[in-house]
Automatic annotation (TrEMBL):
<comment type="similarity">
    <text>Belongs to the DapA family.</text>
</comment>
<dbReference type="Pfam" id="PF00701">
    <property type="entry name" value="DHDPS"/>
</dbReference>
<keyword id="KW-0456">Lyase</keyword>
<dbReference type="GO" id="GO:0019262">
    <property type="term" value="P:N-acetylneuraminate catabolic process"/>
</dbReference>
<feature type="active site" description="Proton donor/acceptor">
    <location>
        <position position="138"/>
    </location>
</feature>
<dbReference type="InterPro" id="IPR013785">
    <property type="entry name" value="Aldolase_TIM"/>
</dbReference>
<feature type="binding site">
    <location>
        <position position="208"/>
    </location>
    <ligand>
        <name>pyruvate</name>
    </ligand>
</feature>
<protein>
    <submittedName>
        <fullName>Dihydrodipicolinate synthase family protein</fullName>
    </submittedName>
</protein>
<dbReference type="GO" id="GO:0008747">
    <property type="term" value="F:N-acetylneuraminate lyase activity"/>
</dbReference>
<dbReference type="InterPro" id="IPR002220">
    <property type="entry name" value="DapA-like"/>
</dbReference>
<dbReference type="GO" id="GO:0005829">
    <property type="term" value="C:cytosol"/>
</dbReference>
<feature type="active site" description="Schiff-base intermediate with substrate">
    <location>
        <position position="166"/>
    </location>
</feature>
């Protein structure tokens, strides 16, 4: 039985932990999931950019899905990210996720090929037609060079299962633009850690987080305080968090956030090639950011 996806709250874009011999580290994955649940997150997203989606076999994504569903035990929805080059393959992955119990999907535009507006809309519609699962469109022109505009969402609005947007344009005015155009037709979730509080205060329904993988309690505190209107209290934690949140907007965000999760005891540094673990001065610099933050870690009420 699928868990209803409300598209509100904090949804970690989960790390994919590996063993030293490049296998999925399911026990560590489940340790992280339990830490997230204990903190009160509202859902899980498997196989996003932070989850090293481009290096995962589809069978591995299904193994991660199975594990997350078992740990969640119906408490929160489990979403699978779809990031494929071919429309046919995206549909196949969506249907495979649905068959294996996923509660929803996050859907990127076509990978590698910079599709134009007509092609992008057709791609999204083609996937939406072939699954009954609720879908969140990932709008990230900064990294993926394809902008899903208000006009394009007007075309997508006819599909009732296209329900939410991961807002990663890095243009905060786009939140207001989407609200003005659609009201509450699409749920909006901020997708850039360094703009997360601003996005929530501008009316986003949730936060798809990265550093939540290492700091779930602090992430949830900011979300809860913001939604309760306790802005000064949220801002105090957010300012402490910012040097860590900036790890999310670097090309090596996977290595950086895995190092942070290792420091907090719920992750490891192993990554899948072509990524390599951090070494030398770069590793020391990131560790310094993490250790400095840990030394001043706020006491949460």
């Amino acid at each position: 039985m699928n868990v209803s996806v409300q598209w509100e709250g904090v949804y970690p874009a989960l790390l994919t932990p590996f063993t030293a011999d490049d296998q999925l580290d399911i026990p560590l994955f489940e340790k992280n999931l339990n830490a997230q649940l204990e903190a009160g997150v509202h859902g899980f997203i498997i196989g996003g950019s932070l989850g090293e989606a481009s290096t995962l076999l589809n069978s591995e994504k299904i193994e991660l899905l199975s594990s997350a569903l078992a740990v969640s035990a119906g408490k929160v929805p489990v979403l699978v990210n779809i990031a494929e080059q071919a429309t046919k393959q995206a549909i196949a992955c969506a249907q495979d996720a649905e068959r294996n119990g996923a509660d929803g999907l996050m859907l990127l535009p076509p990978m590698r090929y910079p599709s134009d507006s007509r092609e992008t809309v057709t791609y999204f519609k083609s996937v939406a037609k072939e699954t009954s699962l609720p879908i969140m469109i990932y709008n990230n022109p900064y990294d993926y060079k394809i902008m899903t505009t208000v006009a394009m969402f007007e075309e997508l609005a006819e599909f009732s299962n296209i329900q939410a947007v991961k807002e990663s344009t890095r243009d905060l005015t786009n939140i207001t633009r989407m609200r003005n155009a659609f009201g509450d037709r699409f749920k909006l979730l901020g997708g850039v850690d360094t703009l997360a509080l601003e996005a929530l205060l501008l009316g986003c329904d949730g936060w798809v987080g990265g550093l939540v993988d290492a700091f779930p309690q602090e992430t949830m505190a900011i979300y809860d305080l913001a939604k309760a209107g306790q802005i000064a209290e949220a801002l105090e934690i957010y300012r402490w968090f910012m040097p860590l949140l900036e790890l999310d907007i670097h090309p090596k965000l996977v290595q950086y956030i895995k190092l942070a999760a290792t420091a907090t005891g719920i992750g490891s540094e192993y990554v899948r090639a072509p990524r390599l673990p951090l070494i030398g001065a770069e590793r020391e610099q990131v560790l310094n950011v993490i250790q400095t933050a840990l030394a001043k870690r706020p006491v949460l009420v």
